[in-house]
Amino acid sequence: MAAYIAKRILLMFPTLLGVVTAAFVIVQFVPGGPVERAIAQMQGHGGQGATAQFSTAEAAPPQEGAYRGAQGIDPEFIKELKALYGFDKPAHERYLKMLWDYARFDLGRSYYRDVPVTQLVLEKMPVSISLGLWTTLLVYLIGVPLGIAKAVRAGTAFDFWTSLAVFLGHAIPAFLFAIVLMVLFAGGRYFDLFPLRGLVSNTWSDMSALQRVFDYLWHITLPVISLTLGAFASLTILTRNAFLDEMSKPYVLTARAKGAGRARVLWGHVFRNAMLVVIAGFPAAFVASFFTGSLLVEYIFSLDGLGLLGYEAAVGRDFPVVLGVVYLYALLGVGMKLVTDLAYVAVDPRIHFGGAEG
Known about the structure:
The chain is mainly alpha-helical. It contains 16 helices and no strands. The protein has helices at residues 2-29, 34-43, 50-54, 75-84, 91-103, 117-152, 157-171, 174-185, 209-229, 232-247, 250-257, 262-280, 282-290, 295-300, 306-315, 319-347. Helix 1 runs antiparallel to helix 16 (319-347), helix 6 (117-152) packs across helix 9 (209-229) and helix 10 crosses helix 12 (262-280). The chain is globular and about 85 Å long.
């Protein structure tokens, strides 16, 4: 196992390299980069302010490779802008510098906030950790037992009625649940039981330890419920199908023919085989709860987390933040994959990774 863990850690590096390289290449072809945005903003001021200081008396003739819309602006100022955002160096030099910085976990500085990306990530991390951990925990606590119960009671009234709830959860996205919960319970048209925005109250620093716990849970309730309702259905269906597939295999019939009780067969044989499929989807579910699933929910409840940070950075062409967030999620994803492999052994000790190949 130790050798396998060491091998998987070594294999993380080419995976991270591939993700970061792909993100860097995509960024190079995205139109409307920071230099072009700065030029557009200055052009929009009608020649006042910064434009008036750096514009030439006569429009400079367009040059090959020049930025569109840069005519009339001092070429020296364009060079200063490119140097400011690091675009004065060739792409391969910027790429190698980025790799060296990322190896030291230096994610650079935000173009527009002028703070280190690492600082931004750490500031947004509590929100994403809260949403991700609580949502993943509740999804597995609800989806796995419900899926097992549906498999054991397949074809019964219980299976039918719970399938309706599962289909609704599968069809309705989390942000619609968030809007409904906000209207119903957060001062909309009906009840005003939960706060509408933020992770904690403004007076959180003045509260006692117990009051802080209750205040935190009070704020996180509706966002977590909306994310859980939008995510448990897939896990429930996966668990049900995995258990039904295992329960139909010959070894189950053999165990029952030998006199093993239903509960013993279910928990002693079927469970550890069926759960391997469920565990395999854990990394994707965990990472998704941090970013893709929580983005609109963060926006609706005014929770400033990593999902919203990455989205705003992509829209604003804040490339260091975009690449830093991508790197962070790739690192989180490969780490969760290793945790998944270790969970395989915890569920089924028969699995042996000693001779496994990369």
